[in-house]
Amino acid sequence: MIEQSVAQVMTPSVRTVAPETTACAVARLFAEHDIGSAVVVDPETKELLGIVTESGIMKQVAAGADIGTVQVKTFLSQPLISVPSTEEIHRAAALMKEHSIQRLPVIDDGELTGMLTTSDLTDYIPRLRNTIRRNQHQAAKGSP
Amino acid sequence: MIEQSVAQVMTPSVRTVAPETTACAVARLFAEHDIGSAVVVDPETKELLGIVTESGIMKQVAAGADIGTVQVKTFLSQPLISVPSTEEIHRAAALMKEHSIQRLPVIDDGELTGMLTTSDLTDYIPRLRNTIRRNQHQAAKGSP
Hints:
2 copies of one chain form a homodimer. Helices cover 38% and strands 18% of the residues of chain A. By secondary structure, chain A is an alpha+beta fold. Chain A is elongated, with a radius of gyration of 18 Å. At the A-B interface, α1, α2, α3 and α4 of A face α1, α2, α3 and α4 of B.
């Protein structure tokens, strides 16, 4: 029960943007959909180029960049660290800690299938705890 | 072992800013310290007024606000949702889910003592899983 996979907790929709999108346009996309990241995709080759996050845009604001013109290709995060949807949740969590990241694109057979965020994992903690309590309760009763 | 408290996983340092701080200055603070939020405190009364986050600044960027002059008091998140450091982790996680937030200031006896983020909780998952595995192993061996 504790060895659940990323597929069970990830957000199954992911926004993608072209590398020429401006920081301001990405900020509007984030605000509109209440998200904190998007995967940067080459519109022609469909290659996954990297990820653009709130923190990335924040650093542009901090550096005094012109938010209305600076394009995501100049500040996207690379390489794209990702997991397959079959990955165990605790391994994905360890990967995020290792790289100090808050979002993991989920890629299956080269196809972007979801996004795993620290919020998804936080939502998972009460469920995990309930499962453990139930198991403890069953073990105490002597059921299999 | 699974009923651990917020004190064991929170980040014990919290940045505070005055309500007159500009969005740009906060963005610089975030970039400099690699953080995503700060608590807004009245410098005279020491009252905790709210929280300013990356998402809050992102929404200002999206709305085309002048980042160099707009002050955090105009867009901080209120009311300040917080937990004491003695709160159980799964309850804090449930509270974050309930309010769709990623940061929880930790307040003990009116004093700001830390910040709990979804990243702190993500870091906790592999530890939680190891504890469970160890308990299962001990149970299988028949130790107490």
